[in-house]
UniProtKB/TrEMBL annotation:
Catalytic activity: 2 5-aminolevulinate = porphobilinogen + 2 H2O + H(+)
Keyword check for Transit peptide: yes
InterPro entries: ALAD, ALAD_AS, Aldolase_TIM
Name of the molecule in the record: Delta-aminolevulinic acid dehydratase
NCBIfam families according to UniProt: PRK09283.1
Ribosomal protein found in the keyword field: no
Biological processes annotated in GO: chlorophyll biosynthetic process; heme biosynthetic process; protoporphyrinogen IX biosynthetic process
Amino acid sequence: MASSVAALRAAAQSSALLSKSGASQNVPTAQLPAMSGLGRANRLLTPSAKSSQAASKRQAPGAVQVRATIAEEKKVLSIEEAEARVVEGNPPPAPPPQPKPRKPKGTPPCDPLDLTSRPRRNRRNGTFRAAFQETTLSPSNFILPVFIHEGETAAPINAMPGCYRVGWRHGLLDEVRKARDVGVNQVVLFPVVPNALKTPTADECYNPEGIVPRAIRLLKDTFPEIVIYTDVALDPYNSDGHDGIVNEAGEILNDETVYQLAKQAVMQADAGADVVSPSDMMDGRVGAIRNALDEAGHHNVSIMAYTAKYASAFYGPFREALDSNPRFGDKKTYQMNPGNFREALIEVESDEVEGADILMVKPAMPYLDVIRLLRDNTSLPVSAYQVSGEYSMIRAAAAAGMLDEKKAILESLLCIKRAGADLILTYFATEAAGYLVADAAKKPWS
């Protein structure tokens, strides 16, 4: 008897120690006093556990049944068991249908219209609108125009808020780097040429050590995969400010100008340009440039022709940026009449036959109908230039609080793309691409 009492006392002491340490389950069985019967079953129970066990014994039989039912519901059913319950008419519960939104007080009572087609059904939420959107924008659609000069610092362009003339050695690389960070990998270069280098015959345009070829070589050395477009035109280099050589009667000489343009294009290709872009609107210049490029071995250099370039008032800020306003007269004898539509087809046919790879419309927004005309009449890619005046109008309206700047930028570009443009030259390229990248993970555009 005494030995039994001693064994019980030892068991109690072990239980108390385990309760204090909170680690009774980790104590080896061999370290506990040997017991039999109820003593062995209870030896690992702490006082609180024993209390819970006792309370459980005192609960009504109904509570035990409830616990059993809950445990059964938590059980993962096999496919056969789940189907059997449904067949028995005992499917698992699901939320009720969403209630219909209440109409505002005072809504007039009326019978539904007898309509078989309701186009608004496909516009009723953001997911549908995104799924059915016919035209989308991508940074790959954009070409960034960059103004370059010989200076080391960036000079703001007053008529184009947010745009600068950047140094070709430093600022140019920064601009291209920012553009590439948001997926814009195409740039077009426009040079600011010192007045001392401008001449009536624009010979600086084909100088292999001029600012444009130097900038091309630097870009290709820094960003080998960047696609570089160049402007093939005489106006930045011409002391008269025109796109061609001018005789003493004020006439723009077509064929002599084309001769200079072909030399300029070859020089740009020699420097590493991927696409040369004649913007002069001289007759026959695409064919002459194509022949000159091929003769120089540049069979893979493309031509983006300014096919339908109109004599527009929207170029004003650009000409301030490059200081390339005509010294006399205007450009109406070579650029197209804004009132003409069908004439663009003549230019399309000529440029296609002469070997153009891309056809451009300039300006873009006021000439969406012409963009569509080209899209419907050529299989070549179509580009459009959202020119400086279009850019500055949006900036000015947004600065005055008249427009939401971001929405206006993206909508204007979307409309140009919708009209049929595959590529868009825009001063908003980096900014717009940044918006697109930031919005990519958000809900559909609305």
